[in-house]
Amino acid sequence: MTPLLDALFLQAGHNAALVAIGAGLLGYASGATGTFLFLRKRALLSDAAAHATLPGVALAFIVMVALGGDGRNLAGLLLGSAITAAIGLVTVQWIVAHTRLTEDAAIGAVLGVFFGVGVVLLTVIQTMSSGRQAGLEDFLLGSTAGMLRQDALVIAAGGALALALTWALRRPMTLVSFDADFATAAGYRVSRIDLMMMLAALVVTVIGLKVVGLVLIVALLIIPPVAARFWTESVGRMIWIAGAIGGISGYAGAAVSASAPNLPTGPIIVLMAAGVFVASLLFAPVRGVAAAFIRQRRFKARVHHRQGLLAIARQEPIRETFTLRLLQRENLIRADGVPTEAGRAAAAKVSRDERRWDIARRIHQDAGLTGRYDGLTPIEDVFTADEIQEFDRRIGPPVAVEG
Amino acid sequence: MTGTAGTKDVVAARIGSGHRGASSGEAALSVRGLTVSYAEKPAVFSVDAAFAAGAMTAIIGPNGAGKSTLLKACLGIVPRLSGEVELFGQPLEKARHRIAYVPQRASVDWDFPATVLDLVKMGLFRSVGLFGRLRGEPEARARACLERVGMAGFADRQIGQLSGGQQQRVFLARALAQGADLYLLDEPFAGVDAATERAIVDVLRTLKSEGKTVIAVHHDLATVTEYFDRVFMINVSPVAEGPVAEAFTAETLMAAYGGRLAATHVDELALAGTRV
For residue range A81-93, what is the model confidence (pLDDT) as tens digits? Predict the structure, then answer.
């Protein structure tokens, strides 16, 4: 484990430290930017853009070699990838606007065609004399081997740009994601805001090509916000939580992949993010699966508790074992099923509440209040003491429950 | 249908008199030659309308008559094939800050990460700008709007936990936060409880008493006379327009709804002509 710890604490050499910091910045930017893609339900669209970068990378290589330059110049490759990704996005929009195809069909078609063309071009490059050591296939799944200081600077600058765009436009983007019609009515140009959203995602995709790779970059855009959604009910906080999840995943994933030879960087980073997602899914308060399970259990117990007491009040036998165990545990009935003193008192109270609700629903005018009857809501939570007194006056004096 | 021709004449006359000048003062919203089409089937065809300022107008008509589409086209939400829209005598883009829109509540995903207060603050985004403060005075304004719709106690509640009626009230509060002169509502009473319906009507009446204009797509013919003072009746193209007393009659209803409205139902409605 020492190589891993060294890598995590930036002790594994200059290059590994550079890679970890670069991947952390990339993760932060992509998590924050991806928040609005997720809320606007545009995750797949950015996947199409990511796959459409491949022909751009390959074409840029070919053009640079043809012009007598170094085909592996990163700035040139990224520029090429951005151009074809943008063409891919425009194509999807055009298909949706001008044909009867739905967006998912358009995304599938564009993604497949662009990626296919890219793979064909890669094969062509393999046959070129200068193409054998091009290493372009690293753009598929990402690699941090031989990452340079200037590569990290490109990531930092691009990440800062995407973050700034997301932060500056967080209000219109929130509005468009929640209610595009209202945004239009209020005077926002929805198409322009969508364009800025996709532009930020495109920047993250392009700078993430080298580290994470184009196949998995969409995961780094979407998994962090999905995980963040479990922890908050506020868009503002969600942006920063998603950024933090992405940043930690990027940093830790890059460190792990640097600590062992031949571990691909992109998949490790994405698996880190997926780990955070699974933990959030299971253990987040309120929205997590465990919390929902506990809530459901408590609710079920309340229902059985109340039904059991009503059965006692009506002097009906209780048949369900869950109900029997519940009431026994609370000493409301004895082991043989006979109600205790406390059980009879509680049953009398529940039965009275039911009769109060009966009266309330018959005589009270406000449907908003009487509509809150569900068998569980205590009547004191809905009506004032005066109103309940009035219901009691119509019911008559309390009646004891016989054992 | 022997009376068809006669009915049409009456209706045509009514549109003629309702358009411009029937009400006192300027039109809050006026539309000329508006056509909206989905694919190659017009949903709204060649509509001329002038909605009186300071009035509460119901847009009514059968299902698929283009009521919501008319509203959305006026706001630029769906593209217009032809026609012009003016707000208070100005082109739409120059007067957007004077309108507030309440969409159908089913049109959004309520499992969105926002509290009730967050949602109402969305109505302030335009006036505070990209970087303006939302705490302090603007937040107090948002809370006051919640108070007006009787939802002050729900400010910190997650919007996904609201009932249908509560969702509708919060949407109205967001529109109030926009501080507009013209309120456009799309089926504000659809699927809400009686208490919410009363609360919304009260708020709309208060708006009217403050001199604001209210236009609502409305589906419940039984409450038209009680809630509104003008109607705009549409079935793809306009059928009748004017004060409730003149335009909301058995004839115009038959013209708009045709066979879909059995004569017996018409008798049960609180029609303008039969009231004192």
Answer: 999 999 999 999 8
Query: Domain with A162 in it: what CATH number?
Result: 1.10.3470.10
| pLDDT of the residue at A391 | 86
Q: Are strands B230-235 and B213-217 parallel, antiparallel or unpaired?
A: unpaired
User: Cβ of A251: how many Cβ atoms within 10 Å?
Assistant: 25
Structure tokens at A35: 């928040």
Cβ-based contacts of A168 with chain B (< 8 Å): 130-131
Residues A265 and A335 in one domain: no
Say if residue A329 is in the same domain as residue A210.
no
Distances in Å between the Cα of B174 and the Cα atoms of A97, A345, B188 are 31, 48, 13
Q: Nearest Cα to B49, choosing from B234, B183, B263?
A: B234
User: A320 in contact with B at a CB cutoff of 8 Å?
Assistant: no
> B70: which residues sit within 8 A by CB, 6+ positions away?
B31, B34, B36, B44, B47, B59, B234
A316 plus A279 within the same structural domain: no
Lowest pLDDT segment from A200-209, A256-265, B27-36: A256-265
The CATH architecture that domain B1-88+181-200+215-270 belongs to is 3-Layer(aba) Sandwich (3.40)
> Quick check: A39 and B113 CB within 8 A?
yes
Of B113, B165, B196, the CB nearest to A234: B113
Write out the residue range of the structural domain in which residue A334 sits: 290-395
Distance from CA of A310 to the nearest CA of B (A): 28
Q: Under an 8 A CB cutoff, do B195 and A175 touch?
A: no
Residues A306 and A370 in one domain: yes
**A309 and A376 co-located in one domain:** yes
Does pLDDT of A327 surpass 60? yes
Nearest to B101 among A174, A185, A368 (CB): A185
Chain A residues with CB under 8 Å of B132 CB are none
What is the per-residue pLDDT for A10?
72
Among A263, A285, A307, the domain-final residue is A285
Kindly indicate the confidence band of residue A403, based on its pLDDT and cuts at 50, 70 and 90.
low
Q: Is residue A401 part of a domain?
A: no
Residues, chain B:
276
Query: How far off is chain B from A369, nearest CA to CA, in Å?
Result: 9
CB pairs under 8 A between A and B: 81
Which of A250, A285, A320 is the endpoint of a domain? A285
Q: Is residue B267 exposed (0-12), middle (13-18) or buried (19+ Cβ within 10 Å)?
A: exposed
**Backbone phi, psi, residue B240, to 5°:** -155, 155
